[in-house]
Structure of Leucine carboxyl methyltransferase:
Amino acid sequence: MNTQKVDFRSIPDEGVTWTLLGTLYLRAWESRLPAPILGDRYAAEVMERIDYDFDKLGRRLRPSGNQFLVGLRGRQFDDWSAAFLARHPDAVVLHLGCGMDSRMLRLDPEHRLHWFDVDVPQVIELRRQLYQEQGNYRMIGASVTDDGWLDAVPGDRPVLVVAEGLLPYLSEPEVRGLLRRLTEHFRTGELIFDAMAPWIVRMVKVARWGPHDGAEVERWNLRLTCAEEVSFGEHYRRIPVRRYRALYRLMYAIPLMRNMARIFRFTF
Ligand SMILES: C[S@@+](CC[C@H](N)C(=O)[O-])C[C@H]1O[C@@H](n2cnc3c(N)ncnc32)[C@H](O)[C@@H]1O
């Protein structure tokens, strides 16, 4: 990691780009708990390097217990990713909408895998000031909705595609197009993403797409098989603070709440 402070103050206080600062802040906060769920110590290190009013952001985000949701979600993504990579040490990893997440440091600290972090050009420009390309690690500044950027990625190996907190911000045709390009480019692999239920999408200003279930995505793209779909709250027992554990247990018991945000694992 580089060492000088990077100016993020130009990022507006709302909108999709802002959300990457929210998830980074919450992961850093979660990592400081005595018994964290994800425990992403790199998030705290990266945050230290960013010039931004994180206190203001924290006042907006933390009181509702979002740090546990981000911890639970990140844990599920990392666990499924690690299981795939253990079975496919020759895999290519595509981490879409990576923001400032340090997943490659958590899962591939030696940079052995062919790992590509992808986000829009403005975000990758900032990311390059915090992280360095080294070993087989590369960053691609492109919208995942564009054609062309996949040409830089070898298609002849099994692929792990990870999209955490990305697909809700795309439209349905954009998601369909992305999934089609991925399954055309790679012969085999896994795709892990999270999504909100359609009724939540209607309530969240910046959200645009959410599936009813995994079968809906299978119907669009016949190469994809939904292997697992779990609620964000699936592992609520791991929440280390009693009142939030009780709150998430209650939400988990109500199907409408349990299914409002889910994580999907597809194989192809
Ligand atoms: C909620 S943040 C999640 C960031 C990261 N995955 C994390 O968990 O911290 C959403 C990310 O998706 C990125 N994003 C949104 N639309 C995109 C697009 N069309 N192409 C690539 N990245 C996009 C944003 O720039 C942002 O970094």
